[in-house]
Amino acid sequence: MSFFCGYLITQVPGGFLASMYPANRVFGIAIAMSSCLNLLVPSATELEKSLYVIIIRMCQGLVEGVTYPACHGIWRHWAPPLERSRLATIALCGSYAGVVVGMPLSGTLIDWFSWEAPFYVYGVLGLIWYVFWLWLCFEKPSLHPTISARELNYIESSLGAAKQSAAPTILNTPWKEFFTSMPVYAIIVANFCRSWNFYLLVLFQASYLHSFNFEVSATGYIGALPHLLMTIVVPLGGLLADHIRKNGILSTTSVRKIFNCGGFGMEATFFLVLANARTPLMATIALTCGVAFSGFAISGFNVNHLDIAPRYASILMGISNGIGTIAGLLCPVAINIIIRHKTRQSWSEVFILAAVIHYIGVVFYGIFASGELQPWAEPKVEEDQQMNEVSIDKKSKLSSYGSVELSSGKGFVNAGLNTNYTIGDTAPAPPTDNPTNPFLAKPTTATTNPFATSE
Description:
Elements: H1 2-9, H2 11-20, H3 23-47, H4 51-64, H5 67-78, H6 84-112, H7 117-136, H8 149-159, H9 175-178, H10 182-210, H11 216-246, H12 252-275, H13 280-294, H14 304-308, H15 313-338, H16 344-368, H17 381-399, E1 404-407, E2 411-414, E3 419-421
Antiparallel strand pairs: 1-2, 2-3
């Protein structure tokens, strides 16, 4: 609970941080800080079993709250419109891969060493990852030292004017348009529905499997199986979504709705099967298939921010993920109330509730979602003019250094000196004592050769 409280607080601020500062740095620092805090948990339990652990977990939530908004801040500069689905889903599938690796690995580390081992191992691995992140990740394609000119031109030309727009601030962000836009609400509702089921599985999946008398070690591996399939399905869904869009088979709006509603609908249906499962095999199959199909929904709502408002994608991600975090606060309370008697019937009620929540998400997103750029997502006219003035000013400064341009019908023009010369014309004026172009300067009387003798 303490983690979710901190996580909720920094969602929207994280969106602004990712807009105002390099999003890759924001993301990397957040993971590094969370890793350092992870190393402190075992010691905190020795000092005070509740207070210090609560403080550390809340601080972890605060720093990790900026990560998802920062991801969209990174893709704002790197993801061409027709490749957003696959690039974003490849990145997002890491959170599910972490569950796949973390659940069995944590059990193994505890069996071999002690309960403190997972905290130390994951903390150290996070810091090692941060070193590679600083080395390999850059804010924008133009800052990457080894990117090819062809790739750079492709990315920047595909993003168009979006990459030139100024970073949004609290004052110029269209808050009213955010909260009166039904496509934004469609993303928010979908995020809440998906978060409910995600936290349900992360927090209560092991308890549910224990009701079928699974061993503790078996619970870790069986519980990781659904997330393993989701790790595979999420990027495959992104590839398929972009293939359909790139080939003009369906519009972006249709693709987002089909993938999101299809993923939610299939997961809800399998959860109804799970609610009536009477054998461990049926429960495992229904759980695995339901979670796997939900992976297609990531190519729907979780990428949709970049479609409707790429300039504000990190902020919208912060808003929607913040609402989704509320599901993380409500879900444990509601589930614990339902399963207080630990009966099989109570688990049926848990999964029926989860299915109903997902069906609500299917209906709402199917009606109100959009994949088109919203009118309020474009920079205002005065901001465009300001950006143009900055661009013109930069060009004028560059041209002042005697740059040479080809002028139609007039030959080569020296932009800095504003002199034209073609064959047959009169020669340009002799160089002045202090010309703009240093290569046209008069030779000085003082020699530059230190070996020359003076007369």
